[in-house]
Write a structure and sequence with these properties.
Blueprint lengths: L7 H6 E3 L5 E4 L12 H6 L3 E3 L2 H10 L4
Antiparallel strand pairs: 1-2, 2-3
Length: 65
């Protein structure tokens, strides 16, 4: 059986945390930021954990993590 390849797009978007959970970037900060409040932009900076509902799908895309 050949080795499984990781999904190239998922490789760039998810990273494991120290405890093995998956981290992702938060949405809604890409563009059109001039009309958003400072608090709203601050709330969307940094990383978040992948939800339980999506975890199985992301693990399937990244079999080597």
């Amino acid at each position: 059986m050949p080795k499984l390849k990781s999904h190239s797009g998922a490789k760039k978007r998810f990273e494991p945390s120290g405890r093995g959970k998956l981290r992702r970037n938060k949405a809604w900060k890409g563009h059109n930021n001039e009309h958003k409040t400072h608090s709203r932009k601050r709330a969307h900076q940094g990383k978040a954990l992948v939800s339980k509902a999506d975890l199985a799908l992301v693990r399937k895309l990244l079999p080597n993590l």
